[in-house]
Amino acid sequence: MSIEKIEDLVAWQKARELTRHIYHLTQKEKFSRDFGLKDQIQRAAVSIMSNIAEGFERGSSFEFHLFIVIAKAS
User: What is this structure's pTM?
Assistant: First the structure.
């Protein structure tokens, strides 16, 4: 099976799902009052998706692996 677009990657799909959950949770009243924490957690979730996508677009397995490691750190 060949992966032709980022949406085909299971890791990216899971990251997108995680991001949706994070945004849902951070909209709840108690969490939404801590703007700094809320924003930091939301940015980290988006960063995971972004790093997977950027690594995928780089075209080399070495760089893709590097961006996966960065995404994992997020």
Answer: 0.84
